[in-house]
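dumping this here before i forget
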Amino acid sequence: MTSPSLQKLSHRTNVLLLLGLTACLPGRASIPEDRILEPEMTALRPASSAKDALELRIQPIQARSHIQTNVLHRTLEGEIQTDPIWTWSVSPSLYLNQALDLVASSDAGIRTMDTTRKGSLRIELLAFEIQDDEQGPWAQVKILARLRGPDRQVQTREFTERVAIQGEMPQSLSKAMGSCLVSLSKKVLAETKKLLR
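structure:
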């Protein structure tokens, strides 16, 4: 049987491999490197899983079809526009996967598994954008989470996280979106533990 620490390492390795492979897809070479962004996520200290940790399978994240590598803006009128300058290095769903893995690895109350009947988390990425309003621009991530426990019952929750974009672009956007992803992941996993216990 694979140890929990090796399972977490394997999951992390798979995410990093996906990030690397996606960055090598055709068409990326035509975009100047200084226009390609990545969210800046704060490193978290890994924790060993407790004996009574929730066994959880985090399924591959699905994203709405309009969420690609383009940086998106949502105007005051609700219209979605593509940023003419900046682009993400990979699909935002992979960033969210990375953030969930970082948070899960630092939480002794969660043991991520490739297969388990104890609990599963399926996420659909609904929004990954800059939202403009009267108070200024915000980094916004919105998801729909479906939680399934050992009783096979599915509970659905919607989560939204917003962080103000302050300072010069593009560093301010990278920092705000990274903070947004980590904060959202903490909320999702905290709610997952509460509902599936």
